Structure formats: C-alpha cells, structure tokens
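Quick check before the chapter quiz. The format below is the same one you will see on the exam, so make sure you can read both the input and the output lines.
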Amino acid sequence: MSNVIPIEKPQDWYFTFGCGQVHAGHYHVIHGTFDEARMEMHARFEDKWSMQYPTAEAAGVEEWGLKILK
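Here is the expected output.
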C-alpha cells in the first residue's frame, strides 16, 4: 500500500446557475484543480451558482442550450 497522494492536474471546470438565479441559463468556466476552481467561483459569485462539472457535456451545455457567461 502506497502513501503517495496523486497530484490533481488543473483543468477547465464548468459551473452552472440554478433556476431563479440571476445567471440562470448560463455557465461559467474556470481553470484549475477542483478546489481551486470552486474557491474562485465563490470569490466571483459567492453562493449564487448551482453545480460544478468536469466537462461541458456533463454540465448540459448543448443539451440545455446554456450560454457562456464570461
């Protein structure tokens, strides 16, 4: 058994907004590790967002016709 902790590689993370929120119907992309991206999302939008996904497909960008929020 190894005590080595794998290093997480930064990637693009896709964040969505819930119904009734100011940016509903949009998504926002932040590059970093899971935790780095999540902390940055909180810094930018506080708790006014919904979910974090590893891909645009998982976030439902095409399926739901979400628009990017830059």
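If your answer matched, good. The longest helix spans residues 34-45.
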